[in-house]
């Protein structure tokens, strides 16, 4: 089959780069073009220069890229460094030492600040604790903790001594934790008695106990438990230790050894659409370089920014843009422990105001949820400290984008819609704030050094602006995954196999417009085939969200005798429209999709729902809706499902 994916939705709004922004940005148009040209001419020289300039090396590298076992690429192989030293010790010179590294707000409103010097001390204490537990370089440590400072400390302590962390999101079940403990073969588990979430306590330690039942095939010998909620828990003699007791009496001096550039840094599980979650493996120098550069470029981080990425450290966004990227840049990172709407829907805006947040990075799911609640919650607060807004996780529907820009950003902040994946380590395609004009719903252009393309089933580049295909990356980059933990075949087959190892295949569909801007159309697996027209999910959903009554929408294909597939839509209404007549609305929405896209995409049925099945990181799980709409039994992995 040579068919590409049809695009019918044309979003023409354009918001130029604010001039004041371009003048001060780390990257402007000419610098961006210079970097792209350099990367094109000599990729290895390009990456080598950046790696020397931006990382602190113990042993400099002489070799940039080893392609000997492609697609298992290796970077900076004969160099060595320490990731934690790059994120902390580097910033202990002069006044920076007393700069806030982390500002944390608990769900109960308590606030804690840690300077770089204090962070250094906490990480050293805990790294020595791990050493005392005979954790050696390369050993796996599973972290199942709330969004508290100690979770960041635990990650950096592992990095400091070369242990490989695997963070399991605190919202995951005992079962999900058990699978990840078994797959990593970790000997140590770090957890807490409980986590606060939406005014309730999530019993983390109890989940951990269930995951650790004797009949399971884990290797855990030691559990270190942070006291957070004071929940009554069982402590198993000889296995369980309190965090505060474990660090008592440890030395605050902990040498940071030089580790090889390719030393594994972490494993993070990501759910495939079929089969077991994959343990995505990232290594040290290349990952850190990319997390650092992309934080600097995309968020234009400056000395006095107070930066907040709302992701939990259980996701890649939390790894790259709460911990490694911003700290490597010496930034001040804000962390929030709890639920976004707790105790009221203005919690986020109250924190932006009180902490003077200047850069905010969140997900479309959150933006749509706030939009659904209405503007009044936002208007209660002074958000003038904001200067840049970021988005990640899903395509941003243009109407949600406009709301984000106008209502949250006061019409003055560039919106940086970052397309990337757990596997890519950091941002790949984004409108850099001093470089690219914004188009609502587009993630714009590849970052310096990144070569992205859209190709058809044959792997040939598509050049028509109204045709989409596979989004692929055709040159290796330092932040790329190094494999799937324990399963090299799955790495090759999932990400490279289809086009004979020529491209990294992201699994998303996308198109490029006449300016070369990328528009992500959804996951390839979710593409609908209506009367022979292949349609991505994002455009139809955006056409629905463009209706003033709609806050969020998801579409799936259901079998249809004549058309092959018909469009079935699930729609969430804004709070102010919940009482509207459904028949009238259905007709209006069908007309709206016909207007904006064409009759081909008109939904056959529309379901008004209160919620959509989402992953814990807020992505709509269309495969579950599809199964539901088709009346099929759900057989896929649902360990990442929210409800
Ligand atoms: C960082 C992260 C990756 C998938 C990716 C794509 C979707 C992420 C997006 C986006 C459109 C964006 N995605 N960012 N789609 N525009 N700005 O989310 O990693 O959890 O591995 O998910 O998320 O479908 O392939 P991960």
TrEMBL record:
Domain Acetyl-coenzyme A synthetase N-terminal residue range list: 32-87
Positions with a binding annotation for CoA: 197-200, 317, 531
Gene Ontology terms, MF aspect: acetate-CoA ligase activity; AMP binding; ATP binding; metal ion binding
CDD domains reported in the protein's UniProt record: ACS (cd05966)
The protein's Enzyme Commission number: 6.2.1.1
Pfam families registered for this protein in UniProt: ACAS_N, AMP-binding, AMP-binding_C
GO biological process, one term: acetyl-CoA biosynthetic process from acetate
SUPFAM superfamilies: Acetyl-CoA synthetase-like
Binding residues for Mg(2+): 545, 547, 550
Modification N6-acetyllysine occurs at: 619
Binding site for ATP: 393-395, 417-422, 508, 523, 534
Annotated family: Belongs to the ATP-dependent AMP-binding enzyme family.
UniProt function note: Catalyzes the conversion of acetate into acetyl-CoA (AcCoA), an essential intermediate at the junction of anabolic and catabolic pathways. AcsA undergoes a two-step reaction. In the first half reaction, AcsA combines acetate with ATP to form acetyl-adenylate (AcAMP) intermediate. In the second half reaction, it can then transfer the acetyl group from AcAMP to the sulfhydryl group of CoA, forming the product AcCoA.
Name of protein: Acetyl-coenzyme A synthetase
